[in-house]
Design brief:
CATH topology of the largest domain in chain B: Immunoglobulin-like
CATH superfamily of the largest domain in chain B: Cupredoxins -  blue copper proteins
CATH superfamily of the largest domain in chain A: Cytochrome c oxidase-like, subunit I domain
Oligomer: heterodimer
Mean pLDDT of chain B: 88
Helix content of chain A: 55-70%
Mean pLDDT of chain A: 94
Strand content of chain B: 15-25%
Radius of gyration of chain A: 23 Å
Number of domains of chain B: 3
Strand order of the largest sheet of chain B: 3-2-1-5-8
Shape of chain A: globular
CATH architecture of the largest domain in chain A: Up-down Bundle
Helix content of chain B: 40-55%
CATH architecture of the largest domain in chain B: Sandwich
Largest interface: A-B, 100 and 102 residues
CATH class of the largest domain in chain B: Mainly Beta
Number of domains of chain A: 2
Distance between the termini of chain B: 63 Å
Number of strands of chain A: 0
Largest sheet of chain B: 5 strands, mixed
Distance between the termini of chain A: 40 Å
Radius of gyration of chain B: 28 Å
Low-confidence stretches of chain A: 1-15
Chain lengths: 530, 375
């Protein structure tokens, strides 16, 4: 607190005060831009840690036979890779973008609850520090898959499961606080004149995402607490021998898990809906239908969870219900894709790096959507379920989907954050290496999955060898391409061509009316939106 | 409708998208399988695949047309239109119709898959960490089925054989031309029993008995391989399934053989065995049933699976050692082996554990001791 007071005194003679000096700036900050920056760097660090695990997995799978690691460590790697990418990379990156951009896009001076904002970030390094430390314990890290199905994750789990449960609780608290903050900001701090239906799409998608988070993170907390009770306090929620039900675990988990999937994609929809109109120099096609489509997807996400469980032996009627409900999602999702394409149609397009990532998002996310539609067909899912076809599907929606959306957003807003344009050639190089890498990695997984390779196996039969080797090569190309991104980011922060306030010729919205780089404090006086 | 032409077209398209090497169809795509259900599923899969391809062609076609035609560098000037109620209604309605067209055949196939009534043969399938147990209900036949791929193959010390990781000691034998009902459950964690060629995949869940069925047509006798499809622990990748379809007559003969073998085995257990015989047999049983957890050299694995070399159990009281192997140790991963191994195998493996890797009790555990302690 003394630091905060001191910094205030230091800057009394300026028009507005700047950040405190040194490390304490970051520890005590309540500034949405500082916190957004920390979220983004945290997510980027986790991307590299989770990515390293992915490369360990792919290296072991390069050839049939066990070469580098043991099956036990392989299971720890698949589990930790999933947990870190979902909870450590994708979700915090979106929260970081929200922290930076929500106040700038709605014309607010900061987030509505700045101290809680600080706390919701600072929980995360401890949560993930604890999760990662389990790798060094004698029993090893969690090894039961990121979906942690009971009883493998309870009765049969390594002792590190307790740390995992506590870590999930902490991540959940962080997410809920972040979501409350975003909702409070969007609903209360919008500039005069910005009605709900005038909000940028990124704000809309994040508003809906934040409600999803508040609805389902407590469910996740509930299911891990039930696990904790089973492991340490003698209950039998998921233990059939004690009258419990292992399938109950899956119902509760996926009631969280399916909305979670949309938590990881809706903000990316928002980002792409900002970028495409800018570089097509044409207003977004069907703004209202975009909002309704996003809301429909969010609603449907609550009534489709059991399509992850088509093979658990549910009654026929239940299977049919979840099949039909799942197929319905294709309609609003289709509307969004058609709208993006119509926005481009008869526009005046240029192809800077954010646009390239956004276009790749539209194509590759749609491919992930197609395989999703195939997976929705329950009878066919009996063949697809738990194979590499599923692995291909969710990596298509998460990597060239969610992750490309985040990267597109970073390129798009980077000149606003740093005041410098990034090196366009380097950005394009990063894009093409990532694009090629991602497809070489994940496209062959469709084939091995259809041909019968189960997921989460450390070793495989000989007929799967060729495509696994190709996927491994692609994974290394994709992984190392992200070092280009790191280099580009550092280079842009340190200097570069001075960015204009509007940054992009076709950019519209409040965030482009303030100077580049964005001053430490913005919109002390609310702007007026016509 | 989606017959040979489509099949050929699909392999061509998939082939073009894939690696340069010429691949056989089954390596790229879902197998058609050998049952009516598996073939219906395959056709559903190809139907939805082609629907997706055509939607993709149209949507991406328009998109890439815009990308090439409507670019600023070609002097394109942006128009300002941003909504069209007609268009938006159209592209909500058309997908709805397509989805309904998809849902109808999918529902039909699903109803067929769920009709497990009037089965001719009932086989109970139990998942264990990490092996499958099969019981032929009402036939007094049952056995465990273990992976036979050697550790040397897995750890690249010898050449891998053709059915690497897909070979077991005992096949699950089923008759063709008869409706087989699989009753699937688990003894520990969740597994999933999957044989792609008959399109049967069902989770094996402790406390549940799931049902599935297959009718393999006559003339389709042969071996069909599958794997566990649900992460079930460290050796999830090492518990395959080999289904052997034989004619109804051969099936009856096989059942009789199984029953005769069981009687012979029980009689043999009453005979005398030398220390050397038991050690040889024991080494074999150990590699098959114990080494996955306790290690090939009895050194254990991590903190969960204790070492047997120098262990107080293997060097201590014989009766206690026998008790743990037969009944397992509740609350740990140690299973009860009474039903998995014959009395001779149990005697052999316990003898082996008490005398291998520097354990030097000199004890010989006979099958009779096993029979006694079971009573």
């Amino acid at each position: 607190m003394t630091t905060a007071t001191a910094s205030h005194d230091d800057h009394d003679d300026h028009g507005h005060h700047g950040p405190a000096k040194g490390i304490m700036r970051w520890v005590f900050t309540t500034n949405h831009k500082d916190i957004g920056t920390m979220y983004l760097w945290f997510a980027f660090t986790m991307l590299f840690i989770g990515g390293t695990m992915a490369l360990i997995i792919r290296s072991e799978l390069f050839q049939p036979g066990m070469q580098l690691i043991e099956p036990e460590f392989f299971n720890q790697m698949t589990t930790m890779h999933g947990l870190i990418m979902v909870f450590g990379a994708i979700m915090p990156a979106f929260v970081g973008l929200a922290n930076w951009m929500v106040p700038l896009m709605v014309g607010a001076p900061d987030m509505a609850l700045p101290r809680m904002n600080n706390w919701s970030f600072w929980i995360l390094p401890f949560a993930f520090g604890m999760l990662l430390l389990t790798l060094f314990t004698e029993a090893g890290a969690p090894n039961f898959g990121w979906t942690f199905y009971a009883p493998l994750s309870t009765t049969y789990a390594p002792s590190s499961v307790t740390y995992f449960i506590f870590g999930v609780h902490m991540m959940g608290i962080s997410s809920i606080m972040g979501a409350i903050n975003i909702i409070a900001t969007i609903l209360n701090l919008r500039a005069p004149g910005m009605t709900l239906m005038k909000m940028p799409l990124f704000i809309w998608t994040w508003l809906i995402t934040a409600y999803l988070l508040i609805a389902v993170m407590p469910v996740l907390a509930g299911v891990v607490t039930m696990m904790l009770m089973d492991i340490h306090f003698g209950t039998s929620f998921f233990d059939a021998a004690g009258g419990g039900d292992p399938v109950l675990f899956q119902h509760v988990f996926w009631f969280f898990g399916h909305p979670e999937v949309y938590i990881m994609i809706l903000p990316a929809f928002g980002i792409v809906s900002q970028i495409i109109p800018t570089f097509a120099r044409k207003p977004l096609f069907g703004y209202a239908s975009m909002v309704y489509a996003t809301s429909s997807i969010a609603f449907l996400s609550f009534i489709v969870w059991a399509h992850h469980m088509f093979t658990v032996g549910m009654p026929l009627q239940t299977e049919l219900f979840f099949m039909y409900a799942t197929m319905l999602i294709a309609i609003p999702t289709g509307v969004k894709v058609f709208n993006w394409v119509s926005t481009m149609f008869r526009g005046s397009m240029t192809f800077e790096t954010p646009m390239l990532f956004a276009l790749a998002f539209v194509v590759l996310f749609t491919i992930g959507g197609f395989s999703g539609l195939m997976l929705a067909i329950a009878p066919a899912d009996f063949q697809y379920h738990d194979t590499y076809f599923v692995v291909a599907h969710f990596h298509y929606v998460l990597v060239p989907g969610a992750l490309f959306g985040i990267i597109a957003g970073v390129y798009y807003w980077l000149p606003k954050w740093t005041g410098h344009y990034y090196n366009e050639n380097l950005g394009k190089f990063h894009f093409w290496m990532s694009f090629i890498g991602v497809n070489v990695t994940f496209f062959p997984m469709h084939f091995v999955g259809l041909a019968g390779m189960p997921r989460r196996i450390p070793d495989y039969a000989l007929q799967f060898a060729d495509f696994n080797a190709i996927a491994t090569v692609g994974a290394f190309v994709f992984g190392f391409s992200q070092l280009i991104f790191l280099f580009l980011l550092i280079k842009t922060i340190r200097g570069g061509e001075k960015a204009t306030d509007q940054v992009w010729e076709g950019a519209e919205g409040l965030e482009w009316t303030i100077p580049s780089p964005a001053p430490y404090h913005t919109f002390a006086e609310p702007p007026h939106v016509k | 409708m989606f017959s040979r032409t489509w099949q050929r077209l699909s392999s061509v398209v998939l082939g073009l998208l894939s690696a340069p090497a010429v691949m056989a169809d089954w390596e790229l795509n879902m197998p058609r399988g050998i049952t009516e259900v598996s073939q219906s599923i395959y056709e559903l899969h190809m139907l939805i695949f082609w629907i997706c391809v055509w939607i993709g062609v149209v949507v991406f076609g328009v998109m890439f047309y815009s990308i090439f035609k409507h670019r600023k560098s070609k002097g394109a000037v942006a128009s300002k239109f941003h909504e069209s109620l007609g268009l938006e209604l159209l592209w909500t309605a058309v997908p709805t119709v397509i989805l309904i067209a998809m849902a109808v055949p999918a529902t039909t196939v699903l109803i067929q898959m769920y009709d497990t009534t009037n089965a001719d043969v009932d086989i109970k399938v139990t998942g264990h960490q990490w092996k499958w147990q099969y019981d032929y209900l009402g036939e007094d036949v049952g056995f465990f089925s273990n992976l036979t791929t050697s550790q040397d193959e897995i750890y690249n010390r010898t050449e891998k054989t053709e059915n690497y990781l897909l070979e077991v000691d005992k096949h699950v034998v089923v008759p063709t031309g008869q409706k087989i009902r699989f009753l699937i459950t688990s003894n520990d964690v969740i597994h999933a029993w999957w044989v792609p060629e008959i399109a049967v995949k069902k989770d094996a869940i402790p406390g549940y008995i799931n049902e599935s069925w297959a009718l393999i047509p006559e003339g389709q006798e042969g071996l069909y391989r599958g794997q566990c499809a649900e992460l079930c622990g460290v050796d999830h990748g090492f518990m395959p399934i080999v289904l052997e379809a034989v004619t109804a007559d051969q099936y009856q003969v096989w059942l009789d053989d199984q029953r005769a073998a069981k009687i012979a085995e029980a009689a043999a257990a009453l005979g005398d065995f030398s220390y050397d015989e038991l050690m040889t047999e024991g080494a074999d049983v150990y590699a098959r049933s114990c080494a996955a957890c306790h290690g090939a050299e009895g050194a254990g694995m991590g903190s969960v699976f204790p070492a047997l070399a120098g262990s107080p159990v293997a060097l201590g009281d014989v009766a206690e050692h026998i008790d743990i192997v037969i009944n397992g140790k509740p609350g740990t991963a140690m299973q009860a082996f009474a039903a998995q191994l014959s009395d001779v195998e149990l005697a052999a493996v316990i003898t082996y554990e008490r005398n291998a890797w520097g354990n030097d009790t000199g004890d010989t555990v006979t099958p009779k001791m096993i029979i006694d302690s079971k009573e």
